[in-house]
């Protein structure tokens, strides 16, 4: 009885129509993504690599990060240490600095000695000037006294000459005696004029001596001490120039030595700054081993800027542009993420020469390669040390409205033609 009811229920028209509609709906649901989206046949996750090479020859640190280690935050670790750095240039700079410093110190000591000698010569010159002024003052005094005596004698000779002239007129004295008196008068007057001229000469010499100039015939314009001071001025200028040059050279050498020491410190050991949000993708040298300059040591994969590599038919080249949105789902995950197209490359383009974590095969003839960047807020690294690099993915590109209408129209035309063909065959 139950079997009869079940059989009637299954054979009823309503159930058959419902089952047919369900199958149609299921087929439409399965076909809908292929109608509204362009679905890529193959896609995978990729990321760019950052390669670290040895800056100089040395020994690697045993504490280097291992392959697959993920760095959530940036930190610094020792990478390589030098075995025997070349310090010859530093030693040469130290020697040059020592020589320049000694020369500058010698020039300063000579300047101090010259300053002391100049002070003593200045005192000697001043003492000489004061002595000459005092001597000339005394000579002027002597000459003034001599001039005063000469003037007194001249007055007496004038009086005697006048009396002798009167006696000659009276006939008491002879003409010869009067001539002798006049001659004595003229000689005395001449001697007085000479004393006056000598007094003027001494006053002139005194005025020059007060200014530091000496007009005696057996002396120069300045004394020997002043001449030596003038020679010391030239020597002081030479020493000051030498001291300035050596001081400047010492300062320059000190800066070069500091830079060289800093360079040697950098060459003595090198600390590597591990970037944040990166994973150690490969280790090309064993920790603790010897490396040469420029040898590859580590490769870091950028987990924060991962992208999807997908191949599409060449006919979609004009339909996909940089900046277009794409929906991405990693195989095995139920979460769909929205990314942006960052570049499109044709099948005839040169092979990508970037350092990439996953190998990008050359596209087949008639296919293009599309790169889709994942959103930054969604690119967190997983804990298995791979950041999903190399993982397969499903990518969907939304069709535009005009393209969708053309696709639906073509499908309807195909379906109409197929129905007409079936009816004609019946």
Helix and strand topology:
Elements: H1 2-11, H2 13-36, E1 37-39, E2 42-46, E3 49-53, E4 58-60, E5 70-71, E6 75-81, H3 88-170, H4 175-210, H5 224-268, E7 269-274, E8 278-283, E9 290-291, E10 296-302, E11 307-313, E12 325-330, E13 337-345, E14 367-373, E15 393-398, H6 401-425
Antiparallel strand pairs: 1-15, 2-11, 3-10, 4-6, 4-9, 5-8, 6-7, 8-10, 11-14, 12-13, 12-15, 13-14
Helical stretch count? 6
Strand order in the largest sheet: 1-15-12-13-14-11-2
Query: What value does the Rg take, in angstroms?
Result: 59 Å
Largest sheet composition: 7 strands, antiparallel
Low-confidence stretches: none
User: How many structural domains in the coordinates?
Assistant: 2
Distance from N terminus to C terminus (CA atoms, Å) equals 41 Å
Average pLDDT over all residues: 77
Category from helices, strands and their pairing: alpha+beta
Global shape: rod-shaped
Q: Count every beta strand, where a strand is a DSSP E run of 2 or more residues.
A: 15
Helix and strand run: HHEEEEEEHHHEEEEEEEEEH
Give the fraction of residues assigned to helices. 40-55%
- Report strand %: 15-25%
């Amino acid at each position: 009885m139950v079997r009869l009811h079940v059989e009637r229920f299954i054979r009823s028209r309503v159930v058959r129509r419902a089952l047919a509609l369900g199958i149609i709906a299921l087929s439409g649901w399965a076909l809908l993504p292929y109608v509204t989206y362009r679905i890529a046949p193959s896609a995978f996750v990729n990321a760019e690599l950052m390669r670290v090479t040895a800056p100089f020859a040395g020994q690697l640190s045993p504490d280097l990060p291992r392959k697959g280690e993920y760095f959530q935050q940036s930190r610094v670790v020792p990478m390589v240490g030098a075995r025997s750095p070349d310090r010859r240039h530093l030693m040469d700079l130290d020697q040059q600095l020592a020589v320049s410093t000694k020369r500058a110190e010698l020039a300063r000591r000579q300047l101090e000695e010259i300053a002391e000698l100049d002070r003593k010569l200045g005192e000697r010159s001043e003492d000489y000037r004061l002595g000459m002024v005092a001597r000339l003052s005394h000579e002027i005094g002597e000459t003034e006294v001599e001039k005063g005596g000469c003037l007194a004698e001249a007055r007496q000779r004038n009086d005697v000459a006048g009396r002798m002239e009167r006696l000659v007129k009276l006939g008491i004295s002879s003409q010869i005696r009067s001539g002798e008196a006049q001659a004595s008068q003229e000689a005395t007057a001449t001697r007085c004029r000479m004393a006056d001229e000598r007094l003027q000469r001494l006053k002139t010499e005194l005025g020059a001596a007060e200014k530091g100039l000496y007009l005696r015939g057996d002396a120069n314009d300045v004394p020997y001490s002043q001449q030596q001071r003038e020679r010391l001025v030239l020597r002081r200028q030479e020493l000051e120039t030498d001291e300035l040059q050596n001081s400047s050279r010492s300062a320059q050498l000190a800066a070069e030595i500091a830079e060289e020491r800093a360079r040697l410190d950098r060459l003595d050991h090198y600390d590597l700054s591990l970037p944040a949000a990166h994973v150690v993708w490969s280790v090309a040298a064993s920790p603790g081993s010897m490396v040469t300059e420029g040898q590859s040591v580590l490769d870091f994969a950028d987990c924060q800027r991962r992208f999807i590599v997908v191949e599409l038919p060449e006919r979609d080249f004009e339909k996909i542009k940089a900046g277009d949105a794409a929906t991405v789902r990693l195989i095995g995950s139920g979460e769909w993420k929205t990314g942006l197209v960052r570049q499109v490359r044709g099948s005839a383009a040169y092979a990508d020469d970037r350092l990439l974590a996953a190998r990008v095969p050359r596209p087949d003839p008639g296919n293009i390669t599309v790169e889709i960047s994942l959103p930054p807020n969604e690119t967190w690294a997983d804990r298995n040390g791979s950041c999903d690099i190399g993982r397969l993915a499903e990518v969907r590109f939304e069709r535009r409205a005009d393209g969708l209408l053309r696709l639906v129209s073509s499908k309807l035309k195909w379906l109409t033609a197929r129905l007409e063909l079936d009816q004609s065959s019946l």
